[in-house]
Amino acid sequence: MNKKDILVTGGLGFIGSHTAVSLHEAGYRPILLDNLSNSELSVLEGIEKITGVAPVFFKGDVNDPSVLNGIFEQFHILAVIHFAAYKAVGESVEKPLEYYHNNVGGMINLLKVMKKQGVSNMVFSSSCTVYGEPEVIPVTENEPVKDATSPYGASKQMCETILKDVHWCHTQCLRYFNPVGAHESGFIGELPIGIPNNLVPYITQTAAGIREKLTVHGNDYPTADGTCIRDYIHVMDLADAHVAALSRLLESKEESYFETFNLGTGNGSSVMEVVEAFEKATGIKIPTTIGPRRAGDVVRVWADTTKVNRILQWKTKRNLQAMMADAWRWQLGLDKSKIKLGS
Ligand code: WQD
Q1: What are phi and psi of 232, to 5 degrees?
Q2: Which of 111, 130, 129 is nearest to 121 (CA)?
Q3: How, if at all, do strands 77-82 and 178-180 pair?
Q4: Which of 125, 174, 198, 270 to mutate to test the pocket of ligand 1 (most atoms within 8 A of CB)?
Q5: Three-state secondary-structure class, residue 189
Q6: Where are the beta strands (DSSP E) in 68-111?
Q7: Is 17 inside a domain boundary?
Q8: pLDDT for position 59
Q9: Beta carbons within 10 angstroms of residue 276's beta carbon
Q10: How many whole angstroms from its chain centre is CA 104?
Q11: Ligand 1: centre distance to CA 197 (Å)
């Protein structure tokens, strides 16, 4: 029987690896490409433990045409799910050229090879970062894209613009809110390198005794408890949304060649509410201290999910406590030698 091959760039990353599991469960064969700049080969074992199948994997870079052409010539690729990108907001401010080369240059190279190989279906990993501090909450897909506050955010906006201008490529542009958690098995999850920038891995490393305490970046915001509000979404719900978007493309149901969807729960949670959810889910108290506000943080942002619920017939199934329980199970399985503590 013909395999339904899907190229997944960045396939060993946090969201890419979880999407590989959902693709397998939906009857597709994920072909994983990753340059291992922000992931590890051990993720392959985790995916195999869950699916029972050793994933097809290529070590390589989306900026390398020979690797990409080789894959397209070896497999009948039906669509590309493009995750491969650098994603640390703070790092992008220090290394803008690396971010534009990798994120934007990689997109251009991928599209050139897709055009040459006659593949015209793309699911693109974008981010709610493109909205900046939204005027209207909850955020719909019609919320204007604001001037980016980092080269990372700018690179996502540039990629969206490129995809809008490349009419032969049919794109489902998925704007993630805050992906957290891990597959319920505990075999795959988030592997932050060094000191985690993001809230949930910092919480789990604090609970594991790797970090002394959580510093809350400001509690003097105009919110109920003074801390910032985000729309945290379980990574497996996010993975399932990619399969729904892929089906829409392969069944040619899309209404235009470039469609955007906000992927969130539709609910906002403050930093302290996330801490409380973790403590309730695990019974572990998280020591916290209040620090100064973090530059670039928006006060509140969460998704209006009307469009994605209606058109992709998709909505989130897992709540904040499940996200915390799954993130903790993954952390518990991580032996400390694997955790790149960084400076
Ligand atoms: C969430 C809240 C922090 C750490 C980032 C990227 C975004 C997307 C998701 C890729 C904020 C607070 C955090 C800590 C804290 N990634 N916090 N102490 O910044 O909303 O989004 O990840 O697409 O592009 O910007 O997520 O987890 O870093 O922060 O108080 O040690 O937690 O101030 O209010 P963010 P985050």
Answers
A1: -85, 130
A2: 111
A3: unpaired
A4: 198
A5: coil
A6: 77-82
A7: yes
A8: 98
A9: 17
A10: 17
A11: 7
Q: How many domains does the chain have?
A: 1
Is the pLDDT assigned to residue 89 strictly greater than 90? no
Alpha-carbon separation of residue 2 from 5, 27, 32, 285, 286 (angstroms): 9, 11, 18, 51, 50
Tokens of 299: 């006060």
Hunting for tokens 């969206």 — which residue is that? Answer: 160
- Contact between 301 and 221 under an 8 Å Cβ cutoff? The reply is no
Residues paired with residue 214 on neighbouring β-strands, in sequence order: 288
How many percent of the chain have pLDDT more than 70? 97
Mutating to test ligand 1, I would choose from 130, 230, 262 the residue with most ligand atoms within 8 A of its C-beta, which is 230
Beta bridge partners of 217: 291
Residue 209 lies in a domain: no
For residue 157, what is the domain's CATH number?
Answer: 3.40.50.720
- Give the list of residues 6+ apart from residue 96 with CB closer than 8 angstroms, or none: 151
pLDDT in tens, 219-231: 999 999 999 999 9
User: Would residue 169 count as lying in a domain?
Assistant: yes
Three-state DSSP state, 228: coil
Residue 49: domain span: 5-180+233-264
- Report the alpha-carbon distance of residue 219 to residue 217 in Å, rounded: 7
Angle (CA) 147-149-151 rounded to 5° is: 100
The CB density around residue 338, as the number of other CB atoms within 10 Å, is 10
pLDDT digits (tens, 9 = 90+) for 258-312: 999 999 999 999 999 999 999 999 999 999 999 999 988 999 999 999 999 999 9
Please report, to the nearest 10 degrees, the dihedral formed by the alpha carbons of residues 297, 330, 266, 238 taken in order: 100
328 token code pair: 């903790």
CA-nearest residue, atom 32 of ligand 1: 199
- Please give the model's pTM, rounded to 2 decimal places: 0.95
> What is the set of active-site residues?
152
